[in-house]
Write a structure and sequence with these properties.
132 residues; zinc-finger
């Protein structure tokens, strides 16, 4: 699933088109998931607004936790969708499948598991160690 092979030559257009279809499909699924989560969040807010009479601290805390969870889900979906958007842009640029850190080819197996990967395993591990 890379736009280049290990020698740096371009993959056939049919393969690039197949990769693009797969990435776009993931992006579209995340967009639909986001739209559904936004709708659920709006319903939750409407129920909250109409059902606050008699709330005690525990009820308020539960509603706050539910609202925070819904917002966290929306952010997570948007982050994942942005990763696929970035992968699609890299595919169009011809840089998809190459590590942004060291410019080495990202193993096909890694891209099959994590299609929006932008780094090889070594660079990813280095970033994670630095962040810890």
């Amino acid at each position: 699933m890379v736009a280049h092979d290990t020698v740096g030559t371009t993959r056939p257009q049919t393969e690039i088109d197949q990769i693009k279809l797969s990435l776009q499909s993931h992006y579209d699924e995340l967009t639909a998931e986001y739209d559904q989560a936004v709708l659920q969040s709006q319903v939750l807010r409407l129920v909250e607004v109409g059902d606050t009479a008699g709330d005690d601290q525990a009820d308020s805390g539960t509603k706050t936790a539910e609202r925070d969870t819904a917002q966290s889900l929306l952010r997570t979906i948007l982050d994942r969708r942005a990763q696929y958007e970035h992968a699609l842009a890299r595919l169009d640029e011809g840089t998809y499948g190459w590590c942004e850190g060291c410019a080495a080819a990202i193993p096909v197996e890694r891209l099959e598991i994590f299609p929006s990967a932008t780094t090889c395993v070594t660079c990813k591990q280095t970033r994670e160690r630095r962040a810890a």
